[in-house]
UniProtKB/TrEMBL annotation, chain A:
Keywords: Endoplasmic reticulum, Golgi apparatus, Membrane, Protein transport, Transmembrane, Transmembrane helix, Transport. This is Protein YIF1. InterPro entries: Yif1_fam. Has a role in transport between endoplasmic reticulum and Golgi. The chain crosses the membrane at residues 150-171, 178-204, 224-257, 283-302. Belongs to the YIF1 family.
From TrEMBL, chain B:
It is found in: Membrane. Belongs to the YOS1 family. Its main location: membrane. One of its GO terms (biological process) is endoplasmic reticulum to Golgi vesicle-mediated transport. This is Immediate early response 3-interacting protein 1. The chain crosses the membrane at residues 63-81. The gene is ier3ip1. Residues 1-20 form the signal peptide. InterPro entries: Yos1. It comes from the Eukaryota. Keywords: Membrane, Protein transport, Signal, Transmembrane, Transmembrane helix, Transport. Regulator of endoplasmic reticulum secretion that acts as a key determinant of brain size. Required for secretion of extracellular matrix proteins. Required for correct brain development by depositing sufficient extracellular matrix proteins for tissue integrity and the proliferation of neural progenitors. Acts as a regulator of the unfolded protein response (UPR).
Length: 308, 82
């Protein structure tokens, strides 16, 4: 036994070493026929004596499966096919979206999630809204609390669907199809919003570094507000619902305007031509404000039928 | 309003069809949205109208053949399954 490393490898060796020497009832290794002979446990003699008389063919077949070269060749061919399929799938997926870019959005930790949730619900005291860069590439969400991430929107989306099911169950209007309808409705609204945002950013030639995933992230932050609103509506009735709706709408509008202002509007200042038409900054402001105003509308639309 | 993913696909097909049927000569030129009437300024900001015209022209060019395929497939599916 080598020196314990206090690491993964040490525990793995220990785990592997346990079964052949210890109990046979729980850890009986039935993967190969040879180990059945070596085990000195309670049940194995009975198994060996009673077994072959009943399913001798099965035992011989199992023996043959592992010593037969044809079966070996077939197994290796099958595993190489599976590997080829896996490589092909990876290649096709990485043609559409780069997995590294996606990993950036999920590099979060607990401290970031807590701070971000607090900012989403109470953004009025947050001072610095700039997304920090490190040598021209944005910092991961672990290091910068202003960076958008996809973990919170995904979790909030799933939590919203579960909450919707629970709310409908409380009102005795639940059926399993309702969950699917709710999920696909919310998903379609996200897709519509992201597409409209992309279209308007393209039409106004806003040269910002907002990628599609960034927009999905910013669109998904409204689900946190929705969860809060639905919870208050369930706990405190209709009055609590409207108070929570007003609170989360104002907080979300503030958050969206402050976050997107940094990304959309200052690219105006980098235009060296001083003859940019005066319609431009107004149109960009309209986009930001329209995005912000859209949030409470969609929150009300998607949650009002849950809290009657 | 219960949206399904099928509704989204249907909406996308209908919108793309609507953009693809805008005829260049008979319609767009009459209302001043022709291909040669969009490119005005040579600065780095083409303007909203030029972007829209570019978008319409590129949708028509790129999506012509895929739209034929998708429309035929949806016609056949609708005939078969209602």
């Amino acid at each position: 036994m080598d020196v314990p490393h206090h690491g993964y490898r040490a525990t793995k060796q220990r785990a592997r070493a346990a079964p052949p020497t210890g109990d046979s009832v729980l850890f009986e290794d039935t993967s190969s026929p040879a180990s059945g002979v070596n085990n000195q446990g309670f049940y194995t003699p009975g198994y060996n004596v009673g077994g072959p008389s009943n399913d001798m063919q099965g035992g011989v077949g199992v023996n043959n499966l592992f010593t037969d070269p044809m079966a070996n060749a077939a197994m290796m061919y099958g595993s190489s096919l599976a590997n080829q399929g896996k490589d092909m799938v990876n290649k096709e997926i990485s043609r559409f979206m780069s997995v590294n870019k996606l990993k950036y959005f999920f590099a979060v930790d607990t401290r970031y999630v807590l701070k971000k949730l607090m900012i989403l619900m109470f953004p009025y005291t947050h001072q610095d809204w700039e997304v920090r860069y490190h040598r021209d590439s944005p910092l991961t969400p672990r290091q910068d609390v202003n960076a958008p991430d996809l973990y919170i929107p995904t979790m909030a989306f799933i939590t919203y669907i579960l909450l919707a099911g629970m709310a409908l169950g409380i009102q005795k209007r639940f059926s399993p199809e309702v969950l699917g309808i709710c999920a696909s409705t919310a998903l379609v609204w996200i897709i519509i919003e992201v597409l409209v945002l992309l279209l308007s950013l393209y039409l106004l030639t806003v040269h910002s570094d907002l990628s599609t995933f960034d927009l999905i992230a910013y669109s998904g932050y409204k689900y946190v507000g929705m969860i809060f609103t639905v919870l208050c509506g369930l706990l405190f009735g209709s009055d609590g619902y409207f108070v929570a709706l007003a609170w989360s709408s104002c907080a979300l509008m503030f958050f969206i305007v402050r976050s997107l202002k940094m990304k959309i509007l200052p690219s105006l200042s980098s235009d060296s031509m001083g003859m940019g038409s005066s319609a431009k900054p107004q149109l960009r402001l309209y986009i930001t404000v329209a995005t912000a105003v859209f949030q409470p509308i969609i929150i009300y639309w998607l949650t009002s039928h849950l809290v009657r | 309003m219960a949206f399904t993913l099928y509704t989204l696909i249907q909406t996308a097909i209908l919108c793309t069809n609507a953009i693809a049927v805008l005829h260049e000569e008979r319609f767009l030129r009459k209302i001043g949205w022709g291909v040669d009437q969009g490119v005005g300024g040579f600065g780095d900001d083409p303007g909203v109208k030029a972007q829209i015209l570019n978008l319409i022209r590129s949708v028509r060019t790129v999506m012509r053949v895929p739209l034929i395929i998708v429309n035929s497939a949806s016609i056949i599916l609708l005939l078969l399954f209602g």
